[in-house]
Each structure stands twice: as C-alpha cells, then as structure tokens.
Specification:
This protein is of the alpha/beta class. It is built from 11 helices and 12 strands.
C-alpha cells in the first residue's frame, strides 16, 4: 500500500506493516518506549535530542551521525521509514524532526504517523513491550540531498529581504520571557530574529477523537494567511532546535507551500553568537494605513 501523503493514519500504517518493507521508528525516550510501543518499532531518541550547529563541520557531523543511526535501524533505501511520537502536541515535533532529517538526506520513502502513539492506541491496535532487533543496513550514500537546510549565514543574509521568516516557538519564547523550552535561561539571550513573523506551532494541529492531528491543507493555509504568508512565498522556519519547526515544515509541505526551508540550528545556535542581531522589545501591532473614504 502507498499513499501520496507523508501523513499516515493508524489504519493505513497497520495495512502497510503487512504489505511492504517498513522501518518504524519510535522517537520517545527509552523508558516510555519500553512501557509499550508499536510492534516491531525501534527506538531512536537521538532524533529529538541531537543539537546541531549550521557550520560546515556541524552539518557534516549531522549527516554522518544520522546516516549511521538510520543504517543501524535498517534503512537501505528500499524500506519506508515511519516516525511516530506519543502525541503531536506533546512530543515537540520529534517525529517530524525525523521526517525533516531524512528529507534533507534525500531518503525516498518517509511517513509520519498522524496522531502518534495516542492515535494508534485509540484505534485498539496492538501494542508491544518487546524490544526490536533491527536488521542493520547500509544507509545509501549516493542520495541527492534536498535544499531544505539553512545555515545561520543564510538566515542573516535573508533578514529584511522580504523572505518570510517564521518563528513557531511557544509564546513565552516569542515574547522574550524565556530563552527555551528547557528553562528561561538555558540559552544566553532571549528574544527573536529581527523581522520574524510568529505562528505558534500548536496552531497547525486540531483536536480529533484520536487526539491532536494535523489540520487540513486549507486550514494550514488559513493559519499562515493570518501572518501574511501565502503558498507562493519562500518561508524560512525556526524554533529552538528544529523540532517544533519540523512539525510546521511538514504541515506547510502538505498544504502546498513549495519553498519551505528550515534553520535547524535555530535559536539554540543563533542566541549564542553575540554578533547576530535579535529583537527584544515587546511585539507591537503595526498601524494600518487609513482607509480611503468612499465617494458620496
């Protein structure tokens, strides 16, 4: 079974598991994985925890690290990689971070379980507590990498150019009350990138009987319209370390935004370089131009 969408429902994934080669990757922590997971799923917490920098050395390390990890869990290019987290609103976009990394590496077959483990359980599908033993594969090294990765230099060059720079962090990070999800003072500076627009990442999801799922393409387009962003715009995303922005990256790609890229180093990297500008004042609403009076 195949689908055009990256997002796959629990029912679709259950059918896939018996019909084609899949490698299911659980991005949660080891203790949570051990308490119950999808049958045959392998655990790869590094998807969420790895902190990247956008220097040439940092990106080389990112590529080699995850090529090794993905090969170790059995991805050779022939299998469909399926990522999941507990629920889309509680895992900070970690399953989508796996999708983003494989997209960057050029891997051809990638899915994300829409609704995560919560949606799987809500459908009464089987859960396992047995650890999986993956069949190690050689991750393909001849893939054409995708142009979705931004460096801090790319972002600095894009400031004040009209490119839509979209901050999707939580409200306290956007307003400068906190520097990160790991504590208010985890990063050395608080604030946001100059000229950034803001849509909190939660807004690209909606409730369902199975738990939070992604909004429809039209709903995602409507959310972006509130910040003046359309499907024809070039969109540069950032958050703190590229997880929540990966959630938004997937939402926008599924909604028809053709030129979406992400600054994977995000605020964790940007805030640590004092030479890079930030905005720290309270966000303000720009005044609208006065309406023209109608002719009598």
């Amino acid at each position: 079974m195949t689908t055009d969408s990256v997002l796959v429902s629990p029912e679709q994934l259950s059918s896939m598991m018996g019909a084609e080669p899949v490698v299911i990757i659980d991005t949660r922590d080891a203790e949570t994985y051990a308490a119950g997971h999808l049958p045959g799923a392998v655990n790869m917490r590094e998807i969420f925890t790895f902190l990247a920098t956008s220097t040439a050395e940092g990106l080389t390390a990112l590529k080699s690290t995850f090529a090794e990890h993905f090969g170790a869990v059995g991805l050779s290019g022939a299998e469909t990689a399926v990522f999941y987290e507990d629920a889309l609103n509680s895992g900070y976009g970690q399953s989508c971070r796996g999708y983003y990394l494989l997209t960057w590496l050029g891997y051809p077959k990638i899915k994300v379980l829409n609704g995560g483990f919560s949606a799987w359980k809500a459908q009464g599908l089987p859960v396992s507590v047995e650890g999986a033993t993956p069949k190690v594969a050689a991750f393909p090294t001849d893939l054409a990498m995708s142009d979705v990765m931004l460096t801090k230099d790319d972002v600095a060059a894009a400031l004040n150019t009209g490119i839509a720079l979209l901050d999707v962090r939580d409200i306290d990070e956007w307003t400068g009350e906190s520097s990160s999800p790991y504590g208010k003072d985890f990063a050395p500076r608080k604030g946001r990138l100059p000229g950034a627009k803001w849509i909190e990442w939660y807004r690209f999801m909606k409730p369902s009987a199975q738990g939070p799922v992604f909004k429809s393409p039209l709903e995602v387009q409507a959310e972006c319209a509130t910040a003046g962003i359309s499907t024809s715009d070039t969109v540069y995303l950032y958050c703190f370390k590229g997880a929540r922005a990966s959630n938004t990256f997937l939402a926008l790609k599924q909604a028809g935004f053709s030129d979406v890229r992400m600054y994977f180093g995000s605020w964790n990297e940007w805030s640590r370089d004092d030479s890079l500008p930030i905005e720290t004042e309270a966000p303000v609403i720009k005044p609208r131009a006065p309406a023209l009076a109608l002719a009598a």
